[in-house]
Amino acid sequence: MAVSGTEPVEPRPVEPPVGIDELLERVRADYRRVEAQEAYDAARTGEALLVDIRYAALRERDGLIPGALVIERNELEWRLDPQGSHKVPEATGHDLQVVVICNEGYASSLAAASLHQLGLRRATDLVGGFQAWRSAGLPVTPGQS
Predict the structure, then answer these.
(1) Per DSSP, what are the bridge partners of residue 64?
(2) 12, 36, 73, 131: most buried by Cβ count inside 10 Å?
(3) How many Cα atoms within 13 Å fall on the side-chain side of residue 114?
(4) Mean of the pLDDT values across residues 19-47?
(5) Could you report the per-residue pLDDT of 78-119, keeping only the tens digit for each?
């Protein structure tokens, strides 16, 4: 199919669909995930940037991780791309170690894989997400509600 003013594009080969469990297994095979204490230690020493991608209602209900950068999931790639025009000051280079944190450790795996595609090869995510952080007794600042 050609769009006016462009050359025709060859269709990509159709791959069989995969379920979300298989997709998570595949993307997680490309990097080492971290546990809550390891993420905490890396952030405390300045070795890693913690990035909380949970939506506002969860942050308000459950609280925040002190020092974590809050970036909503739908803005993550734009804010962390070191070459992007909308990057945050913390997006200093492709060697940045980022630990993505969602609520339970599922969406963060897909987010980390997306950051890998942008060249942030040290991106990872937190096993169990924010809930694992809180269960480990690590610092949490109360939310609004």
Answers:
(1) 141
(2) 36
(3) 15
(4) 96
(5) 999 999 999 999 999 999 999 999 999 999 999 999 999 999
Q: DSSP characters for 24-74? A: HHHHHTTS--B-HHHHHHHHHTTS-EEEE---HHHHHHH-B-TTPEE--GG
Plot region of 46 (φ>0 → left; ψ -120 to 50 → alpha; else → beta) = left
Give the residue from 138, 116, 134, 117 showing the smallest Cα distance to 125. 116
CA 55, CA 60: separation in Å to the nearest integer? 9
- 60 vs 38: CA distance, rounded Å: 25
Other CB atoms within 10 A of residue 53 CB: 24
Secondary structure of residue 124 in the 3-state scheme: strand
Torsion on CA atoms 33, 34, 35, 40, rounded to nearest 10: -150
- The amino acid that residue 94 corresponds to is H
pTM for the structure as a whole: 0.88
- Nearest C-alpha neighbor of 31 from the set 113, 136, 139: 113
| Residue 111 · residue 28 · CB < 8 Å | no
**Tokens encoding 29:** 């095979």
